């Protein structure tokens, strides 16, 4: 009797297993897919992603903070810093955007500066541009001049911002990063038209270059606004930019660098002829 009972139990187990296997075969098996990284999705899809605060895109090569011991440059309390997220990449809506930097040096400490813009292949979009500094230290900007072709939509570009403390044939103090222009959609245009705080819209849409440029332009017009200073500190913190408290507590918005005539060369100096600048620059 015990042997017969054992055989019945084994038979029942086989039937049950067969039923379960049949169900497993009948159920659809989801296809295996590799995780999608920020660099593998299309540019347009990446720009439309809803990102949490602090996420300003996938990391890119480059350096947003300079080493101030190069080229015989003097020691400074806070180094040359590009106002860029730690990803070293950002977007803009502008055809010729504005980039901002914290400049610790005075004009007499820098013989000349150089700005370079390249495509993904490392080819210069335009011949390197020479410039001199305005009344620094403080925050300075570079707006791509008319001599530079407009940025193409959804294309990544790399820029270099270099300072030569002695002669142009020495090793420069340098920061560099990436920029990509995205299209202005009707929905985004409506948001920007309906708000008194475009910088907040830019920040929420993760359009870094326009967010920081608009906020700094507002501070320049309202230098005593504690609210704007707090907004600037919050945006920089969100991008992971660590400026010293004394830099943020007295933000000197100096203005644009002053481009020199011609292109950069090893003979360029701050005494080279200067292009005429529009009023207010």
Describe the model:
The protein is of the alpha+beta class. Helix content is 28%, strand content 19%. The protein contains seven helices and ten strands. The strands form two sheets. It has a six-stranded mixed beta sheet with strand order 2-8-7-4-5-10, covered by helices on one side. It is globular. The chain starts with a helix and ends in a 22-residue tail after the last strand. Mean pLDDT is 76; it is low at 1-11, 13-54 and 271-281.
Shape: globular
Structural class: alpha+beta
Mean pLDDT, to the nearest integer, reads: 76
Beta-strand percentage range: 15-25%
Q: How large is the radius of gyration?
A: 27 Å
Could you give the topology of this structure?
Blueprint: H1 2-26, H2 43-48, E1 81-82, E2 89-92, E3 98-103, E4 112-118, E5 129-132, E6 138-143, E7 156-164, E8 173-181, H3 186-193, H4 198-204, H5 208-221, H6 226-238, H7 245-249, E9 253-256, E10 258-259
Parallel strand pairs: 2-8, 6-9
Antiparallel strand pairs: 1-3, 3-6, 4-5, 4-7, 5-10, 7-8
Helix pairs in contact: 4-5, 5-6
Provide tags for this entry.
281 residues; four-stranded mixed beta sheet; 19% strand; globular; disordered N terminus
Question: Summary?
Answer:
The protein has helices at residues 2-26, 43-48, 186-193, 198-204, 208-221, 226-238, 245-249, and strands spanning 81-82, 89-92, 98-103, 112-118, 129-132, 138-143, 156-164, 173-181, 253-256, 258-259. The protein has 281 residues and is of the alpha+beta class.
């Amino acid at each position: 009797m015990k042997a017969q009972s054992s055989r019945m139990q084994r038979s029942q187990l086989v039937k049950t297993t067969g039923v379960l296997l049949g169900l497993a075969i009948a159920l659809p098996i989801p296809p295996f897919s590799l995780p999608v990284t920020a660099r593998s999705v299309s540019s347009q899809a990446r720009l439309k992603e809803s990102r949490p605060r602090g996420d300003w895109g996938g990391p890119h090569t480059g350096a947003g903070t300079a080493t101030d011991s190069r080229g015989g440059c003097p020691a400074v309390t806070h180094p040359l810093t590009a106002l860029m997220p730690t990803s070293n990449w950002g977007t803009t809506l502008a055809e010729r955007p504005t980039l901002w930097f914290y400049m610790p040096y005075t004009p007499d400490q820098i013989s000349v500066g150089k700005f370079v813009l390249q495509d993904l292949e490392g080819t210069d979009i335009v011949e390197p541009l020479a410039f001199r500094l305005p009344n620094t230290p403080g925050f300075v900007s570079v707006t791509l001049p008319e001599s530079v072709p407009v940025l193409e939509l959804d294309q990544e570009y790399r820029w270099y911002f270099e300072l030569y403390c002695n002669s142009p044939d020495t090793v420069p103090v340098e920061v560099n990063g990436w920029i990509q222009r995205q299209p202005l959609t009707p929905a985004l245009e409506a948001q920007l038209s309906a708000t008194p705080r475009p910088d907040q819209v830019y920040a929420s849409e993760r359009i870094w270059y326009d967010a920081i440029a608009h906020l700094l332009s507002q501070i320049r017009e309202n230098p005593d606004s504690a609210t704007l200073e707090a907004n600037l500190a919050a945006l920089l913190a969100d991008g992971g930019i660590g400026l010293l408290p004394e830099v943020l507590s007295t933000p000197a918005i100096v203005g644009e660098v002053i481009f020199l005539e011609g292109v950069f060369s090893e003979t360029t100096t701050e005494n080279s002829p200067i292009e005429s600048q529009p009023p207010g620059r």
